[in-house]
Amino acid sequence: MFESETERKEKDSESTIGAEDGLLAAQQRRIHLTAPLSQDKAPSPTTATPSPPVAYPPLDEDGRLDPSAFQKLPFRFDTGIALFAKRAPRPFPPPYLSPPSGSFSDPLSTHDRSRDRRRAYVDGHLIQGLTNGDDAVFASDYFICANDGVGAWSTRPRGHAGLWARLILHFWATAIFEDAARQGASYRPTPVAYLQRAYEQTIEATGPPNDWQGTTTAAGAQLHYRQVQAKDRNSGDSGSGNPGSARAGAGASPGADADADGAAVEPLLYVTNLGDSQVMVVRPSTREMVYKSTEQWHWFDCPRQLGTNSPDTPADCAVVDEVPIREGDVVLAMSDGVIDNLWGHEIVEKVCESLERWRAGEGRGRGRGLGTGLGRRGDGRDDDEVHDDDDHGMMGFVAEELMEAAKAVAVDPFAESPFMEHAIEEGLASGGGKLDDISVVAAICRRNQG
């Protein structure tokens, strides 16, 4: 099976509506490595080759990854999440989420509220991230991503796109955090290797005897840094380049610090994309888009995707862009529920407008609840440690406003939308927005203190 988005939309109306998967709201915590990152190996087409052993570190009481796996980097993200699901996500099946003791009900067809907030596990470890319909998202100090599972799998007896999207995310984030902790100060990201490893581990985790099928797109941005000579700090371009270029609008960050060797450090994004989810960088200081990833398609409405029966693999198809950014830039990881309903200039305007409204005092206390925006801090402080004049919740507010703008178009049968425009260009009758899961992770680049 290799499904297009149009086939998915037609079949979704007949699919079983499941229970919400447990939404995991706590921020990631401290970890320490017990083993190095294993060498990636390509699976044999004829034999079942186990994926590389996972060097799972000890986890805290919440079982979540922690940015302290990284040597303290010069820059970090403050993040927020907003989610809208066109239907409640299907609960994860056993062995990822076992039915309550004594229950013989089918977790894929029976809505049991007792399972709504039960945690999901793989190989005995908490599955990282959040599920939103068939989407999955992850946010931390140094990595954000949005995966979009192909919902047509929900009509198949062993299909579960939401599980595939979440497992790819889980293994992807885990590979990044493990490698960063292993290498320490010498750490340099290898983005394709991380996603390839996640893909292989997801194949193994969903293979026999579990045998769960699905496909998903993947889009993520990892924050790192680059060194430039101090004399070149302000010699970069002005940010008026082509937004589709990986180095457009980069320049050097104003005020970058020089180290003992006279080199300045500036934030650098490693953007990895496969499919039609998108990473975008917005520069509020100039109200412009300075970068967006390029969507990948087999044909209209059928994106590249990882999973069952798909020919696509990260090693062959993933695209990595190195994107120099600046402090204060906003990085967005979005499922196609956003970009199918909002044009790029509308996204830029909504982000800049939301920041201005927040700084004018609007939205305080909002942007903290799942489904309407989840504000997260990148410095590890809890809510009771943050003062009212802090920016805690700002990115949650930005994400929420962007999600609501996309949702307003998605549910309007008379709206004009990018999806409608693209469909008409292909000679297909289409009108209104595209009702889909809408997932937004918004992150602002900050300088780490100390």
Automatic annotation (TrEMBL):
E.C. code: 3.1.3.16
Top-rank lineage group of the source organism: Eukaryota
SUPFAM superfamilies: PP2C-like (SSF81606)
Alphabetical keyword list: Hydrolase, Magnesium, Manganese, Metal-binding, Protein phosphatase
Cofactor(s) of this protein: Mn(2+); Mg(2+)
Reactions performed catalytically: O-phospho-L-seryl-[protein] + H2O = L-seryl-[protein] + phosphate; O-phospho-L-threonyl-[protein] + H2O = L-threonyl-[protein] + phosphate
Segments of skewed composition (Low complexity): 243-259
Example of a GO MF term: protein serine/threonine phosphatase activity
Cited InterPro entries: PPM-type-like_dom_sf, PPTC7
Residue ranges, compositional bias (Basic and acidic residues): 1-14
Sequence segments annotated as region (Disordered): 1-63, 92-115, 229-259, 362-389
The family this protein is said to belong to: Belongs to the PP2C family.
PANTHER family per UniProt: PROTEIN PHOSPHATASE, PROTEIN PHOSPHATASE 2C
Protein name: Protein phosphatase
Source organism: Thermothielavioides terrestris
